[in-house]
Design a protein that fits this description.
three-stranded parallel beta sheet; 10 strands; alpha+beta; 287 residues; elongated; 10 helices
Protein backbone atom coordinates (compact mmCIF):
# COMPACT_ATOMS: atom_id res chain seq x y z
CA UNK A 1 0.00 0.00 0.00
CA UNK A 2 2.80 2.41 0.97
CA UNK A 3 4.65 1.65 -2.29
CA UNK A 4 1.53 2.35 -4.38
CA UNK A 5 0.91 5.59 -2.47
CA UNK A 6 4.49 6.66 -3.13
CA UNK A 7 4.13 5.91 -6.85
CA UNK A 8 0.88 7.88 -6.98
CA UNK A 9 2.51 10.90 -5.29
CA UNK A 10 5.42 10.76 -7.73
CA UNK A 11 3.03 10.63 -10.70
CA UNK A 12 1.09 13.63 -9.40
CA UNK A 13 4.35 15.53 -9.02
CA UNK A 14 5.48 14.61 -12.57
CA UNK A 15 2.10 15.77 -13.90
CA UNK A 16 2.45 19.10 -12.05
CA UNK A 17 5.92 19.63 -13.51
CA UNK A 18 4.59 18.88 -17.01
CA UNK A 19 1.71 21.35 -16.59
CA UNK A 20 4.08 24.12 -15.53
CA UNK A 21 6.38 23.38 -18.47
CA UNK A 22 3.47 23.48 -20.96
CA UNK A 23 2.22 26.79 -19.57
CA UNK A 24 5.68 28.36 -19.71
CA UNK A 25 6.21 27.17 -23.29
CA UNK A 26 2.79 28.49 -24.36
CA UNK A 27 3.56 31.88 -22.81
CA UNK A 28 6.83 32.14 -24.72
CA UNK A 29 5.16 31.15 -28.03
CA UNK A 30 2.38 33.73 -27.73
CA UNK A 31 4.71 36.53 -26.65
CA UNK A 32 3.17 36.83 -23.19
CA UNK A 33 6.44 37.87 -21.60
CA UNK A 34 7.12 40.69 -19.16
CA UNK A 35 8.69 43.71 -20.84
CA UNK A 36 9.53 47.28 -19.93
CA UNK A 37 6.43 49.48 -19.57
CA UNK A 38 3.92 46.71 -18.93
CA UNK A 39 1.92 46.19 -15.75
CA UNK A 40 2.31 43.08 -13.58
CA UNK A 41 0.31 41.74 -10.65
CA UNK A 42 2.77 40.54 -8.00
CA UNK A 43 1.25 37.73 -5.93
CA UNK A 44 3.37 37.15 -2.81
CA UNK A 45 2.83 33.76 -1.15
CA UNK A 46 -0.80 33.62 -2.39
CA UNK A 47 -1.53 36.28 0.22
CA UNK A 48 -0.44 39.80 -0.69
CA UNK A 49 -1.13 41.21 -4.17
CA UNK A 50 0.17 44.46 -5.65
CA UNK A 51 0.71 46.18 -9.00
CA UNK A 52 4.03 47.10 -10.58
CA UNK A 53 4.70 49.06 -13.77
CA UNK A 54 7.96 47.60 -15.04
CA UNK A 55 10.81 50.05 -15.64
CA UNK A 56 14.35 49.01 -16.42
CA UNK A 57 16.43 49.87 -13.38
CA UNK A 58 13.27 50.45 -11.30
CA UNK A 59 12.78 49.22 -7.74
CA UNK A 60 9.89 47.45 -5.99
CA UNK A 61 9.18 46.20 -2.48
CA UNK A 62 9.05 42.43 -2.03
CA UNK A 63 8.64 41.23 1.54
CA UNK A 64 11.04 43.39 3.54
CA UNK A 65 13.50 43.80 0.68
CA UNK A 66 13.81 46.32 -2.16
CA UNK A 67 14.35 44.41 -5.43
CA UNK A 68 15.20 45.38 -8.99
CA UNK A 69 12.46 45.18 -11.62
CA UNK A 70 15.11 43.94 -14.06
CA UNK A 71 14.77 40.47 -12.48
CA UNK A 72 11.27 40.19 -14.03
CA UNK A 73 12.03 41.45 -17.54
CA UNK A 74 12.02 38.64 -20.11
CA UNK A 75 10.17 36.14 -17.92
CA UNK A 76 6.75 34.86 -19.03
CA UNK A 77 3.64 35.91 -17.14
CA UNK A 78 2.90 33.24 -14.55
CA UNK A 79 6.57 32.71 -13.72
CA UNK A 80 7.39 32.10 -10.06
CA UNK A 81 10.31 33.76 -8.27
CA UNK A 82 11.84 33.25 -4.83
CA UNK A 83 13.43 36.03 -2.83
CA UNK A 84 17.15 35.41 -2.28
CA UNK A 85 18.64 38.29 -0.35
CA UNK A 86 17.52 41.34 -2.34
CA UNK A 87 17.27 39.48 -5.67
CA UNK A 88 14.39 37.60 -7.24
CA UNK A 89 15.52 34.15 -8.36
CA UNK A 90 13.31 32.57 -11.02
CA UNK A 91 12.25 29.01 -10.22
CA UNK A 92 12.14 26.18 -12.73
CA UNK A 93 8.86 24.26 -13.24
CA UNK A 94 10.27 21.42 -11.11
CA UNK A 95 11.12 23.80 -8.27
CA UNK A 96 7.66 25.38 -8.43
CA UNK A 97 5.96 22.00 -8.26
CA UNK A 98 8.27 20.94 -5.44
CA UNK A 99 11.19 18.53 -5.22
CA UNK A 100 8.91 15.52 -5.27
CA UNK A 101 6.57 14.52 -2.45
CA UNK A 102 7.34 16.46 0.72
CA UNK A 103 7.37 13.42 2.99
CA UNK A 104 7.60 9.75 2.20
CA UNK A 105 4.50 7.57 2.12
CA UNK A 106 5.94 5.19 4.70
CA UNK A 107 3.83 3.75 7.47
CA UNK A 108 3.63 6.06 10.52
CA UNK A 109 5.31 4.59 13.60
CA UNK A 110 6.24 7.80 15.48
CA UNK A 111 4.28 9.83 18.01
CA UNK A 112 4.83 13.04 19.97
CA UNK A 113 4.21 11.75 23.48
CA UNK A 114 7.83 12.23 24.64
CA UNK A 115 8.57 15.31 22.53
CA UNK A 116 9.87 18.41 24.32
CA UNK A 117 10.16 21.06 21.62
CA UNK A 118 12.15 23.92 23.21
CA UNK A 119 14.48 26.63 21.90
CA UNK A 120 17.42 24.43 22.85
CA UNK A 121 16.34 21.91 20.19
CA UNK A 122 17.44 24.29 17.40
CA UNK A 123 21.20 24.64 16.91
CA UNK A 124 20.94 27.58 14.49
CA UNK A 125 20.80 30.98 16.19
CA UNK A 126 18.98 34.09 14.98
CA UNK A 127 22.36 35.54 14.00
CA UNK A 128 23.12 32.47 11.85
CA UNK A 129 19.83 32.88 9.99
CA UNK A 130 20.45 36.60 9.41
CA UNK A 131 23.91 35.77 8.06
CA UNK A 132 22.33 33.31 5.61
CA UNK A 133 19.88 35.95 4.45
CA UNK A 134 22.64 38.52 3.95
CA UNK A 135 24.62 35.93 1.99
CA UNK A 136 21.69 35.64 -0.46
CA UNK A 137 20.40 32.24 0.64
CA UNK A 138 16.79 31.52 -0.35
CA UNK A 139 14.04 30.81 2.14
CA UNK A 140 14.02 27.18 1.02
CA UNK A 141 17.74 26.87 1.86
CA UNK A 142 17.15 28.40 5.29
CA UNK A 143 14.33 25.96 6.04
CA UNK A 144 16.48 23.00 4.98
CA UNK A 145 19.20 24.22 7.36
CA UNK A 146 16.66 24.59 10.18
CA UNK A 147 15.48 21.02 9.64
CA UNK A 148 19.03 19.64 9.54
CA UNK A 149 19.91 21.47 12.78
CA UNK A 150 16.73 20.55 14.64
CA UNK A 151 17.17 17.89 17.33
CA UNK A 152 13.44 17.08 17.38
CA UNK A 153 12.30 17.23 13.73
CA UNK A 154 13.08 13.58 12.95
CA UNK A 155 11.13 12.46 16.05
CA UNK A 156 7.94 14.29 15.05
CA UNK A 157 5.02 12.63 13.30
CA UNK A 158 4.57 13.32 9.57
CA UNK A 159 1.65 15.60 10.38
CA UNK A 160 3.76 17.62 12.85
CA UNK A 161 6.62 17.80 10.36
CA UNK A 162 4.34 19.24 7.70
CA UNK A 163 2.96 21.79 10.16
CA UNK A 164 6.53 22.79 11.08
CA UNK A 165 7.55 23.21 7.42
CA UNK A 166 4.45 25.25 6.54
CA UNK A 167 5.04 27.54 9.52
CA UNK A 168 8.67 28.11 8.52
CA UNK A 169 7.74 28.63 4.86
CA UNK A 170 5.38 31.42 5.86
CA UNK A 171 8.10 33.06 7.98
CA UNK A 172 11.23 32.69 5.84
CA UNK A 173 10.19 31.87 2.26
CA UNK A 174 8.88 34.66 0.02
CA UNK A 175 7.69 33.40 -3.36
CA UNK A 176 6.26 35.76 -5.96
CA UNK A 177 4.12 34.86 -8.97
CA UNK A 178 4.17 37.50 -11.73
CA UNK A 179 0.56 37.31 -12.91
CA UNK A 180 -0.83 38.88 -16.08
CA UNK A 181 -3.33 41.66 -15.32
CA UNK A 182 -6.86 40.78 -16.45
CA UNK A 183 -10.36 41.47 -15.13
CA UNK A 184 -10.01 38.76 -12.48
CA UNK A 185 -6.51 39.58 -11.22
CA UNK A 186 -7.07 43.36 -11.24
CA UNK A 187 -10.33 42.90 -9.31
CA UNK A 188 -8.65 40.54 -6.79
CA UNK A 189 -5.73 42.92 -6.23
CA UNK A 190 -7.85 46.01 -5.61
CA UNK A 191 -10.44 44.10 -3.56
CA UNK A 192 -7.75 42.64 -1.27
CA UNK A 193 -6.46 46.14 -0.46
CA UNK A 194 -9.51 48.39 -0.58
CA UNK A 195 -12.92 46.78 -1.27
CA UNK A 196 -14.61 50.17 -0.82
CA UNK A 197 -12.87 51.46 -3.95
CA UNK A 198 -14.84 48.84 -5.91
CA UNK A 199 -18.00 49.34 -3.85
CA UNK A 200 -17.64 45.73 -2.74
CA UNK A 201 -17.63 44.36 -6.31
CA UNK A 202 -16.11 40.84 -6.26
CA UNK A 203 -14.64 38.98 -9.22
CA UNK A 204 -17.55 36.50 -9.36
CA UNK A 205 -20.13 39.32 -9.38
CA UNK A 206 -18.17 41.08 -12.13
CA UNK A 207 -18.22 37.90 -14.23
CA UNK A 208 -21.98 37.50 -13.75
CA UNK A 209 -22.56 41.12 -14.81
CA UNK A 210 -20.56 40.65 -18.02
CA UNK A 211 -22.34 37.40 -18.85
CA UNK A 212 -25.82 38.80 -18.20
CA UNK A 213 -25.01 41.82 -20.39
CA UNK A 214 -23.84 39.41 -23.14
CA UNK A 215 -20.66 41.46 -23.67
CA UNK A 216 -18.50 40.13 -26.49
CA UNK A 217 -16.64 41.18 -29.66
CA UNK A 218 -18.45 43.85 -31.74
CA UNK A 219 -20.69 44.85 -28.81
CA UNK A 220 -21.54 48.55 -28.37
CA UNK A 221 -21.63 49.14 -24.63
CA UNK A 222 -22.83 52.28 -22.82
CA UNK A 223 -22.06 52.13 -19.13
CA UNK A 224 -21.53 53.96 -15.84
CA UNK A 225 -18.41 52.83 -14.00
CA UNK A 226 -17.87 54.04 -10.43
CA UNK A 227 -15.17 51.40 -9.73
CA UNK A 228 -12.17 53.33 -10.99
CA UNK A 229 -12.29 51.81 -14.47
CA UNK A 230 -12.37 48.12 -13.49
CA UNK A 231 -15.69 47.44 -15.26
CA UNK A 232 -14.62 49.53 -18.27
CA UNK A 233 -11.40 47.51 -18.55
CA UNK A 234 -13.27 44.21 -18.12
CA UNK A 235 -15.67 45.14 -20.94
CA UNK A 236 -12.84 46.29 -23.22
CA UNK A 237 -11.03 43.01 -22.52
CA UNK A 238 -14.04 41.06 -23.77
CA UNK A 239 -14.39 43.26 -26.86
CA UNK A 240 -10.86 42.34 -27.90
CA UNK A 241 -10.43 45.53 -29.94
CA UNK A 242 -13.72 45.10 -31.84
CA UNK A 243 -16.70 47.20 -30.77
CA UNK A 244 -17.18 50.28 -28.58
CA UNK A 245 -17.37 50.87 -24.82
CA UNK A 246 -18.41 54.35 -23.68
CA UNK A 247 -17.89 55.18 -20.02
CA UNK A 248 -20.47 57.83 -18.99
CA UNK A 249 -20.25 60.13 -15.97
CA UNK A 250 -23.50 61.44 -14.51
CA UNK A 251 -22.09 64.96 -14.05
CA UNK A 252 -19.99 67.19 -16.28
CA UNK A 253 -16.86 65.93 -14.50
CA UNK A 254 -15.55 62.74 -16.10
CA UNK A 255 -15.12 60.00 -13.49
CA UNK A 256 -11.58 58.55 -13.38
CA UNK A 257 -10.96 55.15 -14.93
CA UNK A 258 -7.29 54.76 -14.02
CA UNK A 259 -7.46 50.97 -13.58
CA UNK A 260 -7.76 50.54 -17.36
CA UNK A 261 -4.02 51.25 -17.67
CA UNK A 262 -3.18 48.07 -15.75
CA UNK A 263 -4.72 45.81 -18.44
CA UNK A 264 -1.75 46.11 -20.86
CA UNK A 265 -4.10 46.79 -23.77
CA UNK A 266 -2.79 47.12 -27.32
CA UNK A 267 -3.48 50.31 -29.27
CA UNK A 268 -6.43 48.58 -30.97
CA UNK A 269 -7.91 47.50 -27.63
CA UNK A 270 -7.45 50.97 -26.12
CA UNK A 271 -9.00 52.53 -29.23
CA UNK A 272 -12.48 51.17 -28.43
CA UNK A 273 -12.64 52.89 -25.01
CA UNK A 274 -14.31 56.32 -24.80
CA UNK A 275 -15.37 58.53 -21.90
CA UNK A 276 -17.94 61.30 -21.80
CA UNK A 277 -20.46 62.95 -19.47
CA UNK A 278 -24.20 62.42 -19.47
CA UNK A 279 -24.95 66.13 -20.19
CA UNK A 280 -22.61 66.05 -23.20
CA UNK A 281 -24.18 62.82 -24.42
CA UNK A 282 -27.69 64.25 -24.14
CA UNK A 283 -26.66 67.44 -25.88
CA UNK A 284 -25.13 65.48 -28.76
CA UNK A 285 -28.35 63.48 -29.04
CA UNK A 286 -30.38 66.68 -29.09
CA UNK A 287 -31.97 65.92 -25.69
Amino acid sequence: MAEKAGEGAALRWDAAVARHAVRAAAAMRTGLVISEGCAVVLDQNDDKKSFAIIKRGGKMKIGKETCSMDDLIGAPFGATFELAGSKLQRLTPGEVAGDGPLLGAEEETRDNRNLRDTDAAQKLSTEDIEDMREAGETGTDIIKALIENSATFASKTSFSQEKYIKRKLKKYCVKVVARRPCARTVCETIFSKNPARLHGLRKDTLGIMLNMAAVGPNSRVLMVDACGGLVTGAVAERLGGNGVVCHVSETTKIMPHDLVRFFNFTNQQRGVVFATSLPSLLAAAGG
